[in-house]
Amino acid sequence: MCSGSCAKCLGITLIPLAILCILCNILLFFPGGVPADSSAHITEEVFYFGGIIGSGVLMIFPALVFLGLKNNDCCGCCGNESCGKRFAMFSSIIFAGVGLLGAGYSIIVSSVAINHGPKCETSLGNFSYPFREGNYLSNKDMWGMCKGPANIIPWHLTLFCLLLIMNLVQVALCAFQVVNGLIGTICGDCCGCCGGDGA
Fold first, then answer.
1. Which of 15, 77, 188, 196 could form a disulfide with 82 if both were Cys (CB 3.0 to 4.6 A apart)?
2. Is 133's pLDDT higher than 90?
3. Burial group, residue 40, by CB count within 10 angstroms (0-12, 13-18, 19+)
4. Which DSSP string do the residues of 29-67 spell out, in sequence order?
5. Cα dihedral sign for 40, 44, 47, 51?
6. Strand runs labelled E in 105-192
7. Neighbours of 127 (CB within 10 A)
């Protein structure tokens, strides 16, 4: 497969993943699926915008660059037919790095949020993080410490776990494009650029 065609496939995959990450982060602003009475009742990690900025907006840029590589026609620069395509593939490595940073940031935020647990109402009537002192993931009996909002723990875990999984997929795709970009930079696009069957 041509390196440009491969990059286009990666771009097509990354765009829906970025949109889903943004959606997950937005849904986290509604603890348990209902509007929060106050922003102070929302888990702190939600405001780090891991899904909106990290694996969302910062992932859109590489995805668009990858999509454009297949139709990139910069041949003939410097008297070399393939140098334009090689430069485009090299630039895709830089944008893949941006994607890796964004997804990596979101992975850190999601992991911390899953480890800390949600901010919820306790038996004392205040909103706090009751699970920071114990492993609520392996001890479901601890879930009773959260009195509200309803279903806040499954909501919190499901959305942050979805974010984490999608972030890992994004990291794998961007890492693959780094390798693909290196091959395209060194070898050029295997389809050729100006020979009538170019990428």
1. 188
2. no
3. exposed
4. TSGGGS--SSGGGS-GGGGGTIIIIIIIIHHHHHHHHHH
5. negative
6. 120-121, 127-128
7. 22
* DSSP run (H or E) holding 174: helix 152-187
Distance CA 87, CA 185 (A): 7
Instruction: Supply 61's token pair.
Output: 């840029």
Rounded Cα–Cα distance for residues 163 and 157 (Å)? 10
Which residue type, as a one-letter code, is found at position 79?
G
Separation CA 57–CA 166 (nearest Å): 14
Phi, then psi, of 128 in degrees rounded to 5: -155, -175
At 123 the pLDDT is 85
- Residue given tokens 């992991």 in the structure block: 111
Query: Which residues does 84 contact at the CB level (< 8 Å), separation at least 6?
Result: 72, 73, 74, 75, 76, 77, 193
Contact by Cβ (8 Å): 134, 145: no
Q: Residue holding tokens 């997950």?
A: 24
Dump pLDDT digits (tens) for 58-114.
999 999 999 887 665 444 444 455 556 777 888 889 999 999 999 999 999 999 999
b/e for 48-74, b at 16 or more Cβ within 10 A? Answer: bbbbbbbbbebbbebbebbbebbebee
